[in-house]
Write a structure and sequence with these properties.
Elements lengths: L1 H20 L3 H19 L6 H8 L3 H7 L3 H20 L9 H18 L1 H7 L3 H28 L8 H18 L6 H19 L6
Amino acid sequence: MASSKNKFLEDENDRSRKIRISKEPDERRQEIVETALALFSEKGYENTTIQNIAERMNVSPGLCYRYFKSKTEIFAATSEFYAIQAVEQMKIPTSQDISAIEKLNLVINRMFDFSVNHQEFESRYNEGSSIRAILLDDVANQWMSVMIPIIEQGLKENTFHCSNVPRTARFLISGLIHTFHEEMPTENAKEYMQSFFDFTQDMLVRVLGLKED
């Protein structure tokens, strides 16, 4: 009887393994990325190992290495996934009837709301500094597609004032994004984000020539 039970359990384990292996490569890769995002948020980059990620997924570390050569590569993919989510949040369609300054306020508020809602990961982001700069440049480039049309609309409405829209957008976005993450503390992240939100508003007023209100 015991032998039959063991055989049944072995068969079940074999079936479970087959089910996991049958997943599409893109689906498996995404599972690794999302699991890593959760662990990097909880434990930080330095304290998370590929073994931790594999254990959370209930797979062998070898499966992770099938898709990524190192933890650095996993962090890069995780940060890219997170950045895309953040930019997609800002791209949510807004009414065409609202002014450029209202759109600008909406986008900035969405960005900071997203950061506050993911403050655990944001506060750990600085730990992967060796690849952070490249990834933040990717975020800045994606954000450009959101900001340039808003600035162009503001010029037409005579509420924004600048001589070169792409250069102004890049100066604002790249500078703000890199400074935001360079100074991000591992503690009291929410308070830091609020102070940086106020700083961002001040910079927008100055660079785009807005009225103080």
